[in-house]
Write a structure and sequence with these properties.
Shape: globular
Number of strands: 13
CATH class of the domain at 2-179 and 233-263: Alpha Beta
Largest sheet: 7 strands, parallel
Order of helices and strands: EHEHEHEHHEHEEHEEEHEEHEHH
Length: 341
């Protein structure tokens, strides 16, 4: 049995599909602040498998103790984090409480119940503002430009110390870049609770008529077209990366450190290129306007994912066109997300 914290969210639900289709039994632990039980119901429909769901919060040690007491877990995959860069600048203490204190509570519960395999949902932001590109796992943890990124660095450092102190604890940190897209069935996808913080859900909501136009934050960056460039990867590829990492972790119990892996395509795509690709693939026109830069955004970065390919046997396989078509398939079938139309 695998515990997936935050498994009812965007990346978590797609990872649930990957694990269930590979034969793992899972328990999802989620407070539903960014997740949906409807997503889990659809995962069950997709896989014809049952999910053990436990509503709880990683900030509540008693709730964690209860789910660990009731189940025997082989490993934990930890997604339960607040994740919006801009919001973290406005609400830093919320991010440190949920992302850092919540992770500490989880690691303490694992120690108490002798669960020793851990996969952490980290981020490319841990490389910081000064890191050269492409980002490589051999780089030192940096000074991120937002409390969100800083919270991920803190957890990675905490995890490194925990592994040093406990030779039985084995951990992987997956540093991923910009997941977009949806399951090709259109049954599950990204469903922001409020105004989307990420590019693709906002863009697709414009396409479906839910929003008037797309705001592009800055067109004066030192890139080819002046807009930010990111390493976008399909969420299904990302989910499969967690499956590969879990299988690798079970086979490599001798590791005595936190093993970090970048999950990305190795190519950077600008905001305007994303808009153009969406229009080309879907035929939907996207009105947009340029607005001021958003605090915390870097001009460009992308992954060197060689290590994941060599050790995990993982690489991004789905194309930019797949990302666009699957996003649109999800959005047009679910114009209001998981809420009833």
């Amino acid at each position: 049995m695998i515990l997936i914290t935050g498994g009812a969210g965007y990346i978590g639900s797609h990872t649930c599909v990957s694990l269930l289709e590979s034969g793992y039994d899972i328990t999802v632990f989620d407070n539903l602040c960014n997740g949906s039980t409807e997503a889990l119901s659809r995962v069950e429909k997709l896989t014809n498998r049952k999910i053990n769901f436990f509503k709880g919060d990683v900030c509540n040690p008693d709730s964690l103790d209860e789910v660990f007491t009731e189940n025997g877990f082989q490993a934990v995959i930890h997604f339960s984090a607040l994740k919006a860069v801009g919001e973290s600048i406005k609400k830093p203490l919320d991010y440190y409480k949920n992302n850092v204190q919540g992770s500490l509570n989880l690691l303490q519960a694992m120690a108490k119940h002798k669960v020793n395999n851990f996969i952490f949902s980290s981020s490319a932001t841990v490389y910081g503002e000064e890191a050269g590109i492409p980002y490589r796992e051999t780089m030192q943890l940096g000074s991120p430009s937002s409390p969100y990124g800083a919270s991920k660095v803190m957890v990675e450092r905490m995890l490194q110390d925990a592994v040093k102190a406990n030779s039985m604890l084995h951990a992987v940190s997956l540093r991923y870049f910009n997941p977009i897209g949806a399951h090709p069935s259109g049954l599950i996808g990204e469903d922001p609770k409020d105004v989307p913080n990420n590019l693709l859900p906002f863009l697709s909501q414009v396409a479906v008529g839910k929003r008037d136009q797309l705001n592009i934050y800055g067109n004066d960056y030192p890139t080819d077209d002046g807009t930010c460039k990111r390493d976008y990867l399909h969420v299904v590829d990302l989910a499969n990366g967690h499956l590969n990492a879990l299988n690798w972790l079970f086979k490599n119990q001798e590791i005595d450190r936190v093993e970090a892996f970048n999950l990305g395509t190795g190519a950077a795509i600008s905001v305007l290129e994303i808009v153009e690709a969406f229009v080309k693939v879907t035929g939907q026109e996207i009105p947009y306007q340029f607005v001021s830069r958003r605090e915390g955004d870097l001009p460009e970065f992308w992954a060197d994912a060689t290590k994941a390919k060599n050790l995990l046997g993982w690489e991004a396989r789905l194309s930019l066109e797949d990302m666009m078509s699957d996003t649109w398939n999800w959005q047009k079938k679910n114009p209001n997300g998981y809420d009833a139309d």
